[in-house]
Amino acid sequence: MELFLIRHTSVAVPRGTCYGWTDVPVSEHFEEEAAACREQLQGITFDRVYTSPLTRARQLAAFCGYPDAIEEPRMKEMHMGDWEMLRFDDIHDPDLQKYFDHFLDHPTRNGESFRDLYARVTAFIEELRADPATADARVAVFCHGGPIMCALAHAGVVPLQEVYNHIPDYASITRLTL
Fold first, then answer.
1. What is the pLDDT of residue 144?
2. Which residues of the chain have pLDDT under 50?
3. Alpha-carbon distance 141 to 51, whole Å?
4. Beta carbons of 12 and 27 less than 8 angstroms apart
5. How far apart, in whole angstroms, are the C-alpha atoms of residue 60 and residue 7?
6. Distances from the Cα of 120 to the Cαs of 54, 114, 125, 131, in angstroms?
7. N or C: which end of the chain has fewer CB within 10 A?
8. What is the spatial order of strands in the sheet that 138-143 belongs to?
9. Are the C-beta atoms of residues 13 and 24 closer than 8 Å to each other?
10. What is the C-alpha separation between 152 and 176, in angstroms, rounded?
11. How many domains does the chain have?
């Protein structure tokens, strides 16, 4: 299976904000970033196209010519729980340092750990690999940085504990052969 993971464009929230599951708007640069992404996808045909249900991913999928992409909730960004829409600098929670020190297994308050995100993303990928309709297919997924980092670790491209050193750019395309 060839898996193309396409990260959404930049968003209209202050840098350093935890916006995981929040349905935030895209930035004023959407058209420019989306057009560059669409150009990179030109000439590539997909057997199946999925998208996170969050608007920032669905909007890019539609702009790139896939308004009917299949919504896949497991490809949502990491759930930041009580920290949603707070800037990391403004979080006064004793669990914050525990999260930074042990992000793989320590969840955000009332949210997910990175390993929780990894489990749902890899379950989706393994489902695709096991399905005869997609096992040898070319599949596109419009999603978020966290799920893309999980896929990179699952594919053995980067160690799981080093994923935050490999955050994909907005509107970038990560191609994996699984």
1. 98
2. none
3. 5
4. yes
5. 9
6. 16, 10, 9, 17
7. C
8. 70-71, 48-51, 138-143, 2-7, 173-177
9. yes
10. 8
11. 1
* Parallel, antiparallel or unpaired: strands 173-177 and 2-7: antiparallel
Cβ atoms of residues 121 and 75 within 8 Å: yes
Closest CA to 166 of 147, 140, 143: 147
Q: CA geometry: angle at 22 spanning 78 and 83, to 5°?
A: 65
- Look up the pTM and report it: 0.96
Of 61, 25, 74, 49, the C-alpha closest to 171 is 61
Nearest to 43 by CA among 8, 4, 90, 95: 4
pLDDT digits (tens, 9 = 90+) for 11-47: 999 999 999 999 999 999 999 999 999 999 999 999 9
Q: Where are the alpha helices (DSSP H) in the chain?
A: 30-41, 55-63, 95-101, 114-130, 145-154
Residue found under tokens 């970038």? 172
pLDDT recorded at residue 28: 98
The reported pLDDT for the residue numbered 116 is 98
Q: Where are the beta strands (DSSP E) in the chain?
A: 2-7, 48-51, 70-71, 138-143, 173-177
Q: What end-to-end distance do the CA atoms of the chain give, in Å?
A: 5
pLDDT of the residue at 84? 98
**Tokens 């893309």 identify what position?**
148
Q: What is the CATH number of the domain that holds 117?
A: 3.40.50.1240
* Phi, psi of 102, rounded to the nearest 5 degrees: -140, 50
Record the tokens describing residue 147, joined without a space: 């799920």
